[in-house]
Predict the 3D structure of the following.
Amino acid sequence: MAEKIKRRQFCYYCSKELDEKDLVMKKFPLHTKKGIRMYTRKFHYDCLPKYIAENGNVESRAAETSDWDKVYKYFMFEIMHLDAGAKLSPHTIERLQGLRVGQYKPHATNTRTIKRGYSFAVILNTLKYSKRAIDYAMEHVHFENDDHMIDYIMKIVQNNINFIQRRMKDLERQREKVEKLKKEEVTTNRGATYKRKGTGRRKVVLS
């Protein structure tokens, strides 16, 4: 009898493959349409405390909620051109949140403070970058229904989102380098003393 093939398992936090020796499981509450339900999540041993810490970080969760609000409003007003007081369809919301976790739709997956998928900040910038192509499609492509239109828009976004994510990471690395250089310059200046010579010029002597 052939051996049963083991199903590959992935960490809920980082989405990297799990090894049985490094696997831990924990139940977490999740808000669903039917109320709060408990779901068992699988993590790397080192990823579980990171997930717990970040989900307990009020500032981190508030920042991501703010980013989601920006995505929602941009899509509603700039992409769909809806009036104030209107709401995005459930399909639209699920597709946007699916991008957050790297899936078609979330499917009982938390969309906050996890390293999977794309951040709402990346999604927002990708929407802005893709707006011209989206506007052109909405004007020239015949859609069977609203869901078809949303899926078409998401395809445009998905084609651009990796490029935007790389650009944002590059910019962040550049900012970190600049900040590091500024700190090093401040430290160097604090460690310098000035001695007056007969010429009246100042000579820097590093300690």
